[in-house]
């Protein structure tokens, strides 16, 4: 399906009285959009919503995966994991921004974990289980801090209505999709790892390089 056709229909759907068109122009645009959608078997969701994916090592049940629901919420998108990908569905640049941040944040978490594993707090753990638990505590605390930063970054962008529409569009695009298993509730044991994870999350700079993207997201709302 031609993307130019989808863009043409999307433009027609924006031609409303609320946006300065006369009643006759709005009616004509709506009729033309409906005609084109019928001819090409398209729904409004096909036209107005897009999807963008990023490679994912997890499927929604890992410690860091608590971050991705917040990312989708804050970018007015809906998330689905499929075939090693995290796919975000939504309107405007939302999916592109979400997929970009998904990759950026995953790298930040991976790098921070690697640095944490070189610290005495991790290295003095004697068993594989205690080391695994320390990494989980570190990651959980980092994720909590990053969720707070996302909430602040997108405070002027979040829209419950757009988010609900994105969820509906995702369900239409992926009718056989199933909800991901929720990550287990963390059981914190290592206070030092928690503090270090929180500090690592605070050091992640989300505004640098995202101002233009966030502005586009807001303007496209």
Task: Explain what you see.
With 221 residues, the protein is mainly α. The protein folds into two domains: 3-42; 50-219, no CATH class. 60% of the residues lie in helices and 9% in strands. The protein has a three-stranded antiparallel beta sheet with strand order 1-3-2. Strand 2 (77-82) and strand 3 form a beta hairpin. Helix 1 (3-14) runs antiparallel to helix 2 (23-40) and helix 4 (66-74) packs parallel to helix 7 (128-153). It starts with a helix and ends with a helix. Residues 5-44 form the DUF2786 domain. Residues 54-175 form the DUF7168 domain. InterPro entries: DUF2786, DUF7168. It holds the Pfam family DUF2786.
Question: What layout of secondary structure does this protein have?
Answer:
Blueprint: H1 3-14, H2 23-40, H3 44-48, E1 49-55, H4 66-74, E2 77-82, E3 85-91, H5 94-116, H6 120-123, H7 128-153, H8 160-173, H9 191-203, H10 211-219
Antiparallel strand pairs: 1-3, 2-3
Helix pairs in contact: 1-2, 4-7, 7-9
Pfam families: DUF2786, DUF7168
InterPro entries: DUF2786, DUF7168
Domain DUF2786: 5-44
Q: Helical amount among residues, as a percent range?
A: 55-70%
Number of strands: 3
What is the N-to-C order of secondary-structure elements (H for helix, E for strand)?
HHHEHEEHHHHHH
Nearest-integer average pLDDT: 86
Given helix and strand content, the structural type is mainly alpha
Domain tally? 2
Major pleated sheet? 3 strands, antiparallel
> Uncertain runs with pLDDT below 50, 5 residues or more?
208-221
Domain DUF7168: 54-175
InterPro entries: DUF2786, DUF7168
Domain DUF2786: 5-44
């Amino acid at each position: 399906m031609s993307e130019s056709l989808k863009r043409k229909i999307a433009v027609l759907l924006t031609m409303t009285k609320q946006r300065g068109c006369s009643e006759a122009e709005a009616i004509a645009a709506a009729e033309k959009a409906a005609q084109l959608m019928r001819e090409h078997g398209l729904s409004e969701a096909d036209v107005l919503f897009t999807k963008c994916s990023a490679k994912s090592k997890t499927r929604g049940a890992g410690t860091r995966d608590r971050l991705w629901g917040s990312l989708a919420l804050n970018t007015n998108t809906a998330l689905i994991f499929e075939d090693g990908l995290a796919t975000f569905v939504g309107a405007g640049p939302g999916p592109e921004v979400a997929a970009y941040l998904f990759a950026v944040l995953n790298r930040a978490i991976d790098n921070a974990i690697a640095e944490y594993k070189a610290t005495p707090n991790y290295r003095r753990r004697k068993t594989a289980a205690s080391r695994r638990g320390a990494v989980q505590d570190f990651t959980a605390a980092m994720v909590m801090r990053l969720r707070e930063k996302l909430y602040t970054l997108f405070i002027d962008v979040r829209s419950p209505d757009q988010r609900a529409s994105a969820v509906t569009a995702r369900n239409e695009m992926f009718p056989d999709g199933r909800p991901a298993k929720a990550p287990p509730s963390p059981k914190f044991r290592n206070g030092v790892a928690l503090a270090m994870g929180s500090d690592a999350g605070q050091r992640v700079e989300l505004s640098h390089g995202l101002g233009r993207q966030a502005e586009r997201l807001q303007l496209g709302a």
